[in-house]
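CO-FOLDING WORKSHEET

Operator: S.A.
Ligand of interest: zinc ion
Run index: 260
Mode: holo prediction, single chain
Checklist:
[x] sequence pasted
[x] SMILES validated
[ ] output reviewed
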Amino acid sequence: MTPLAPALVSETTLATTLSIGRCSVATVEHMMSALVGSGIDAAIIEIEANQGADTVEMPILDGSASEWVQAIASCGRAELSGDTSSATCALLAPLDRPLRVDDPKGTNGFIAYSPGAAADPDVCSLDVSVVYPALGKQQLCWDFDPWTEAGRAAYAADIAPARTFTFESELDALRAAGLAAGGSLHNALVYTASGALYSDQSRDMLRFPDDEAVRHKTLDLIGDLTLAPAAFHRLRGGVVVAHKPGHALNVAFAAALAAL
Ligand SMILES: [Zn+2]
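OUTPUT RECEIVED:
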């Protein structure tokens, strides 16, 4: 078995891909987000690839994490039995110093952590903002609390249903790269330059008409940060400000956290 770690990330274009040797698993972030959002600290993930294939892509489902959350709920959660004192989360102390990482892609995006700054010391406060020409600015201030039943229900209701999205201007490039081949327009919101939905889509598809994009970015952020061992145990009680997060920036922050 290979423990999750930021060092496994081999690709962050559009989705987060992990590689072990010559085997790769693409688009792991929605499943990871659903796991940690459902309060799962420890899980063994077994993935079956088609015979001879070195790369598998996690099912995109409806483009959100809701189906993962439902599947996890149907399995239930169990307390680890026996001596868990050696579990990773017990070994890693909460992060007691600020941490800031700027976007390695050179945008003005950044992720900054302030310890002890959350109004409620038992949650991790997230302040996520995105800016797109077509959508303007969307911001979400939301307390992540996978340690309580109410917090897990809030993740399932507020974050998990937000769908992945793209822009009409990027569709040709996506198709050329083969990345949207299995996707079609049923599991991604496609925004036009004016911020409306692409012609085949109706506004009924929007689950959060005002801010679905930043909610999905929050979903991705939670999933990617989970690459750092015991990430949210270490960030609990603090505030994470994520401005224009993306997979490369998220993974860089996870790597910086894991290195401390
Ligand atoms: Zn995503």
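REVIEW:
The first strand starts at residue 9 and ends at 11.
The pocket of zinc ion is lined by residues 29-30, 164, 216, 220 (CB under 6 Å).
[x] output reviewed
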